[in-house]
Specification:
One of its GO terms (molecular function) is siderophore uptake transmembrane transporter activity. This protein is mainly β. The protein has a single domain, classed as TonB-dependent receptor, beta-barrel domain (Maltoporin, Chain A). β40 and β41 form a beta hairpin. The longest helix is centred in the N-terminal third of the chain and has 10 residues.
């Protein structure tokens, strides 16, 4: 367990929130909590500014003090030391960064509600790594505050908050201002026969204007980002009967796969073992991202408003597979029939690809005092993906010679959200009523191409499509009884899935014609309640008990995004249009005591979920993963979290955040696969530790140390696959360092390293190895 390094990390670090700075107007799916009496809110790390989302259960607020101590290549990095929390980020610029709370699997993306200034950027078109929140619409330099709430303990939020809620608050200008930040970074990467250094850089800047004696403000920001991420997949040879093939050398046998197979904890069919040695690494991903955002604010006393528009362009080019095989003349071999020591294999799957995406977020919110102590709020937003095109070659030779391939094109794709809230507050009680709505739509067509780099002359192959919508009404009441605050809420949801289906080319008399399978519309209702008690003792101790129920309805992708078999027929095991919604019962007890120099918080949580929707993953003949969604009858998690925050201790100018969590997450009942019952849920570690230590070395120089640790979890649902290499989910241990040097009042330079000890960790795919960063920032 790398005990000495963990001891070092625990001695130096810690990890959680402290202060946040200001407030913003709440919006769609994010009703306001900032005007509630401060004594009614128990928030870890909260010091200077109110949290922007209703903090029932464990709640964390991260402000400038924490954010400035992080090596932030992307916005989601800013949360990496939060308690019992992680983001499945494989490399800088990764579009598949799924956040996870407590016992949430790292591909259960539909269990987290993520917002930017209250506008939804969670991608509930599916539930996997391919449907991560749209972090890229915000640059790290824009972020003022991160608020994180664990679990669905407020009736204000949809059931997708079953795991938790994240709200990113971006800066509002107080006066005329400007900023610029540039970064450069490099990752020396060494794995199997891949040996390379992967470079990246970014440039971000913006201006803010605020009327001196008027209600208007404007902020305009932009960011350019480029990086090359390490290979995500290692491709294995497929043994074939008979003899023959090009004699080659250079194939790599992974000793960890051999060890796991001998111990009975290997992955059947996985590449890398003695029978299926690696012949190539997937091409490194060359990522280019361009982001721009406009934020207009209006504040005229009883009436406030905000308009937000964000644009994000993303290119992912993978046109350089790292082929390990060489023939007798030393030529590269990356495809076809090969022979190694008399055994014949087939090498395939080293495809070339390029993905182009254009996306935008637009949102508007208004708030007005309509009577004494009564405020009305309206918010609407849309996130649209007008262009997503993925060009893929049919193999290595086709990629190199512009041969045949496929195109996966999406559109129209996106979602709308809306929220109307009425709140009435006095010194002794608060009432809130709200209506919310959302609508999600996806449509993807796959075509065959004669030249994989061009959409010209494409021919139809398959299509998947579908829509969901959800209408909700909720109410929440708070009563303030001196030291005791009681909050009760109820939420009604009506969900509908419709216009869903799959299309393919017909056979027989219908050969060459698209044939569609469509599904009858489905609807479902649910009523869920929430109840919270918070008691404040006079000696700086607070206790909060929160209870809740939540319903998370299936996404379009889980219901309708099936796949085809090799003969062109539908694979009935790849999707289930009759999936049941997930229904949870949750409880969280939080106890906190502030000693002044240290604040201690303890949390105990419990969650029981009926009909958990889970993606069953396996390998196909090329070592590429396949998945399908099914219901698991019953899962349960419970655990404990301990959080410590010190201020100017043990040294003046030193602040420490430290948190540790124990998680027991199990499948209790699964009639379809009894062997999973009683087994720790996959990808959920028993232990997780995050920490951050910040120290003012001088009045201009600050150093920080960060720690991230997670114990080794199960890789599969049955607890049979445990290892520390590609295909497994492994133990994680990373130490991060950063130095900030304030050269002048306006100019700062920074240097840092993530994963100092070069720990090689895996979340099926490889996590980054040691990465170096230099950064310069200027602010007017």
């Amino acid at each position: 367990m790398k005990t000495s390094l963990i001891a070092l990390g625990l001695a130096l670090s810690l990890a959680v929130p402290a202060r946040a700075q200001d407030t913003t107007i709440p919006a769609a799916e994010a009703p306001d909590s900032s005007s509630l009496p401060e004594s009614s809110i128990l928030v870890v790390g909260q010091r200077d500014a109110p949290i922007e989302i209703a903090p029932r259960g464990l709640a964390v607020s991260l402000g400038a003090e924490q954010l400035e101590a992080v090596n932030a290549f992307n916005t989601e990095d800013l949360m990496k030391y939060a308690p019992d929390f992680f983001v499945r980020k494989r490399y800088s610029g990764d579009s598949n960064g799924v956040p996870g709370f407590r016992g949430t699997h790292s591909t259960q993306s539909a269990r987290t509600l993520v917002m930017v200034d209250g506008f939804v950027v969670s991608n509930f078109l599916g539930n996997s790594f391919s449907f991560a929140p749209k972090w890229g619409v915000v640059g790290p330099g824009e972020v003022k505050q991160f608020d994180v709430v664990y679990g669905p303990y407020s009736s204000r939020y949809i059931g997708n908050s079953m795991g938790g809620i994240v709200n990113i608050t971006t800066r509002d200008p107080d006066s005329t201002e400007a900023f610029a930040t540039v970064q450069g970074f490099v990752q020396p990467y060494r794995q199997f026969s891949t040996r390379d250094d992967y470079y990246g850089f970014s440039a971000e800047g913006g201006i803010g204007l605020k009327q001196k004696s008027g209600p208007w403000s404007l902020r305009l920001t932009g960011r350019y980002f480029r990086n090359t991420g390490q290979p995500m997949t290692f491709l294995g040879l497929n043994p074939v009967a008979g003899t023959g093939g090009t004699p080659v050398n250079g194939a790599v046998v992974d000793p960890e796969h051999v060890r796991a197979a001998a111990a009975g904890t290997g992955i059947p069919g996985a590449p890398g073992n003695a029978s299926n040695p690696y012949f190539a690494a997937q091409s490194p991903a060359r990522i280019t991202q361009e982001q721009a955002k406009l934020k207009i604010g209006y504040d005229n006393g009883p009436v406030t408003g905000q308009f937000l528009f964000a644009y994000w362009h993303n290119e992912d080019s993978q046109t350089a597979p790292d082929c390990y095989l060489r023939d007798a003349a030393g030529n590269v071999v990356c495809e076809g029939r090969v022979s190694i020591s008399g055994q014949s294999y087939t090498a395939s799957g080293a495809n070339w690809s390029k993905t182009l995406r254009d996306e935008y977020l637009a949102g508007l919110k208004l708030a007005a005092d309509i009577a004494d102590n009564t405020t009305a709020r309206l918010a609407i937003s849309t996130y649209q993906v007008p262009r997503t095109e993925t060009f893929t070659s049919n193999g290595y030779v086709a990629g190199k010679t512009n041969g045949a391939g496929t195109l996966a094109a999406q559109g129209p794709t996106g979602w709308w959200t809306g929220d109307l809230t009425l709140e009435n507050k006095t010194g002794r009680r608060a009432f809130a009523l709200g209506l919310t709505a959302n609508a999600y739509r996806t449509d993807q067509t796959r075509t065959n191409l004669a030249d994989w780099t061009s959409a010209a002359g494409q021919t139809f192959a398959s299509r998947t499509f579908g829509k969901t919508r959800q209408l909700s009404a909720w109410g929440e009441a708070q009563v303030f009884l001196d030291a005791l605050t009681v909050t009760a809420g109820v939420r009604y949801d009506n969900w509908r899935a419709y216009d869903g289906g799959l299309a393919r080319l017909g056979t027989g008399p219908l050969a060459g014609q698209p044939v569609a399978n469509t599904y009858a519309a489905r609807s479902s209702d649910g009523v869920n309640g929430s109840l919270s008690f918070e008691y404040r003792l006079g000696d700086g101790t607070s206790l909060q008990l929160s209870l809740a129920m939540a319903t998370r309805y299936p996404t379009v992708g889980e219901l309708f995004q099936g796949s085809l078999n090799g003969d062109g027929s539908f694979n009935p095991n790849s999707f289930d249009p009759a999936l049941k919604p997930e229904r949870s019962k949750d409880a969280n007890l939080v106890v906190a005591h502030d000693f002044g120099w240290v604040k201690l918080t303890g949390s105990a949580f419990f969650q029981r979920v009926d009909n958990t929707i889970f993606s069953f993953v396996g390998f196909n003949q090329n070592g590429i993963t396949t998945s399908s969604f099914k219901n698991i009858d019953l899962t349960r998690q419970f655990g404990f979290e301990g959080i410590a925050e010190t201020h100017n201790w043990p040294l003046e100018g030193m602040n420490i955040d430290f948190n540790a969590a124990y998680i027991d997450s199990k499948t209790l009942r699964n009639a379809a696969a009894l062997a999973a019952e009683g087994v720790q849920f996959p990808r959920i570690p028993k232990w997780r530790v995050n920490a951050n230590l910040r120290y003012d070395l001088t009045d201009k120089l600050q150093g920080s140390v960060g720690l991230r640790y997670a114990s080794r979890p199960n890789t599969d649902l049955f607890g049979l696959q445990r290892g520390d290499t590609f295909g497994f989910t492994s133990e994680l241990f990373a130490l991060d360092l950063r130095l900030n040097w304030q050269l002048t009042e306006k100019l700062r330079v920074s240097a840092g390293v993530d994963n100092l000890t070069n720990d090689r960790a895996w979340v099926f795919h490889p996590y980054p190895q040691r990465t170096f960063l230099i950064e310069a920032g200027w602010r007017l």
